[in-house]
Structures are given as structure tokens and as C-alpha cells.
Amino acid sequence: ECYDGSGSTYRGTTSLTVTGKKCQAWSSSIPHSHEKTPANYPNAGLEKNYCRNPDNDKGPWCFTTDPSVRWEFCNLKKC
Ligand SMILES: O=S(=O)(Nc1cnn(C2CCNCC2)c1)c1cc(Cl)ccc1F
Q1: What is the pLDDT of residues 53-78, one digit of tens each?
Q2: Which residue in 5, 25, 33, 34 could disulfide with 49, CB within 3.0 to 4.6 Å?
């Protein structure tokens, strides 16, 4: 899979980061509490633990399930 531009419109199901970590669900605050919730960002496609770009970073990312790593970019290429 690949993403266009900054990936703000990416709606695929990749949920692994560049270092192979599993993504934390956007609706969860464990292990990382955060502001990027589906309630706060209803149009960002923050489903399950799929990689997304709700804050206009350079590509899709996610909070990781590793307590020592808050977030990482995802294992996706730019189209
Ligand atoms: O809940 S958060 O979104 N957590 C957070 C921390 N770093 N990031 C990066 C995610 C990828 N893009 C750059 C910011 C997000 C968050 C955002 C802001 Cl503006 C302030 C505090 C905070 F807790």
C-alpha cells in the first residue's frame, strides 16, 4: 500500500510502524494518553489502530503500543 501527498486521506488498514511496532488504537489512552481521539477528529478516519495523519505531519503515523515510544511513522511508502 502507499499514500498520496501527506497521507491525510489515507484510509487503509496498515497498523505497523517503521520499526515494526504495533499501533495503539486511536480510541485508547493506553499506553499513551493523547488528544487524537475519534471524538476530537471525527473526519480523520481514526478507526481501530490504523495508520493515519490527523495532524498534517509528513505521512501516516500512529501512537505505538510500546510504552517507551509515544508515536512513529508507519511502514508505508509515498505513492
Ligand atoms: O496527544 S497528542 O497528539 N500527542 C502527540 C505527541 N506527539 N505527537 C506527534 C504525532 C505526529 N505528528 C507530530 C506530533 C502527537 C498532543 C498534541 C499536541 Cl499539539 C499537544 C499535546 C499532545 F499530547
Answers
A1: 999 999 999 999 999 999 999 999 99
A2: 25
Pocket test for ligand 1, best of 28, 41, 71 (most atoms within 8 A of CB): 71
- If you take atom 12 of ligand 1, which residue's CA is the nearest one? 57
pLDDT in tens, 4-24: 999 999 999 999 999 999 999
Q: Which of 63, 20, 25, 12 is nearest to 2 (CA)?
A: 12
Question: Do 37 and 44 meet the contact criterion of CB atoms below 8 Å apart?
Answer: no
HSE value, Cβ hemisphere, 13 Å, CA-based, for 72 = 20
